[in-house]
UniProtKB/TrEMBL annotation:
GO terms for molecular function: UDP-N-acetylglucosamine 1-carboxyvinyltransferase activity. This is UDP-N-acetylglucosamine 1-carboxyvinyltransferase. Phosphoenolpyruvate binds at K22, N23. The gene is murA. PANTHER family: UDP-N-ACETYLGLUCOSAMINE 1-CARBOXYVINYLTRANSFERASE.
């Protein structure tokens, strides 16, 4: 297992380029199962979760070649419709093959994703929606079993706007007979990106990005090329890196329109932010310590839960107090105890963090626990006095491409060592 070692206190300066969005690449790769023909997906982030999805598609029988940020997939034939526990337990997003397998091949057996550090994360809405589309769905021995001769369009209401649930149902409905309407659908940019890719392949989808998506099923989908949108959470993470180190950085090749809640909150902390077409420039040097702000995570277009840990780190060194309310997951606070080891005055009250900012954090050995908590600890280490060692960085490698190289490129004193 590796660790990342940071000597904090350097104000970051310079430019960093954002990679493709992990949470867009994963459903897009899974959706290649829906049809034959070759799909060439570019701007795919080189992260572990993408490699895992590629392995899963290979196990199912697709021909997958991954080189640099390009993935070429041909799923004309497959020789298995089973996503095994050994692989699903390493990546919950494996659930995204359920809808496509069922829609294209009439059956699917996918291991139930287990528990997760950030919450129970049930998939009941995925299963209820597929049942609505006419599938027979049951759970046995830890596996989801689904089968259907051909899915039929239906009206589906999601109790909560589930991101991968919306994606699974949109993919399944794209080959169903008739029209499907998904109400209270998630509106994340990654859903729009998936819908754009499916539409290029012949799917008939309107309303992606709104809370009502209408899908008119077609007989088959063809192959297509696609460039994955930039990762808004990676972009936001680097903006917070600039803010927490009172630096001046530019985040390039991003989509500022996907970053509005993050930009708004960072401006509220006093950071000077300028937005261009594909770049965001942040200068936090002039304002000294950030001002404490209150944050409430919400489904898009609200403040993203995937940026909560990063903002908790920033608020830990802010002037005054702040309250961060996590409304999406029930226990996404694994970073809190580790931040306290670095001197943060932060306590959990139900689904809220009560934070009183301090002048400086102090470096310490800390333990990563999930992808975004790890990012929060890296950010805290960049600002802390002394050396911080973040252990179990395999969590980080799931969703951040070359993070230590990108941060070093901004002047951070950071490297990766065997733990
Ligand atoms: C996606 O997870 C993302 N993952 C997560 O990013 C992100 O945090 C989350 O959406 C929220 O934005 C991918 O896209 C691969 P949900 P997902 O279904 O789809 C409840 C990261 O760090 N729910 O939108 O699993 C659920 O418990 C990861 O990149 C049900 O109750 O999240 C949660 O409280 C972490 N039943 C809420 O809905 C269901 O059937 C939102 O979950 C489904 C979800």
């Amino acid at each position: 297992m590796d660790k990342i070692v940071i000597n904090g206190g350097v104000s970051l300066k310079g430019r960093v380029r954002v990679s493709g969005a992990k949470n867009s690449a994963l459903p897009i790769l899974a959706s290649t199962i829906l049809g034959g023909g070759e799909c060439m997906i570019s701007n795919v982030p080189r992260v572990v979760d993408v490699v895992t999805m590629g392995k899963l598609l290979g196990i199912l029988g697709a021909k997958v070649t991954q080189e640099a940020s390009r993935v070429v997939i041909k799923a004309d034939v497959i020789n298995s419709t089973q996503a095994p526990y050994e692989l699903v337990k390493t990546m919950r997003a494996s659930i995204l093959v359920l809808g496509p397998l069922l829609a294209r091949w009439g059956q699917a057996t996918v291991s139930l994703p287990g528990g997760c550090a950030i919450g129970s994360r049930p998939v009941n809405m995925h299963l209820a929606g597929l049942t609505k589309l006419g599938a027979e769905v049951w759970v046995e021995h830890g596996y989801i079993h689904a089968r259907a001769k051909r899915l039929t369009g239906a009206a589906i209401y999601c109790d909560v706007p589930t991101v991968t649930g919306t994606e699974n149902l949109m993919m399944a409905a794209s080959l169903a007979q008739g029209t499907t309407v998904i109400e209270n659908a998630a509106k994340e940019p990654e859903i729009v990106d998936l819908a754009d890719f499916l539409t290029k392949r012949g799917a008939r989808i309107i309303g992606a990005g709104t809370d009502m998506i209408t899908i008119e099923g077609v007989r088959e989908l063809r192959g297509s090329d696609h460039e994955v949108i930039p990762d808004r959470i990676e972009a936001g993470t680097y903006l917070v890196a600039g803010a927490i180190t009172r630096g001046s950085i530019s985040v390039d090749r991003c989509r500022p329109d996907h970053l509005e809640p993050v930009i708004a909150k960072l401006r509220e902390t006093g950071a000077d932010i300028r937005v261009e077409k594909e770049s965001v420039h942040l200068n936090a040097g002039a304002s000294g310590r950030p001002d404490g702000v209150d944050i409430r995570t919400m489904p898009f277009p609200g403040f993203p839960t995937d940026m909560q840990a990063q903002m908790a780190a920033l608020m830990a060194v802010a002037r005054g107090t702040s309250i961060i309310t996590e409304t999406v997951f029930e226990s996404r606070f694994m970073h809190v105890e580790e931040l306290r080891r670095m001197g943060a005055d932060i306590r959990v009250e139900g689904n809220r963090l009560m934070i009183t900012g301090c002048e400086r954090l102090t470096g310490a050995p800390v333990m990563a626990s999930d992808l975004r908590a790890s990012a929060g600890l890296i950010l805290a280490g960049l600002a802390a006095e002394g050396t911080t060692e973040v252990l179990r960085v395999y969590h980080l490698d799931r969703g951040y491409e070359d993070i230590e190289d990108k941060l070093r490129g901004l002047g951070a004193v950071i490297d990766r060592r065997a733990a």
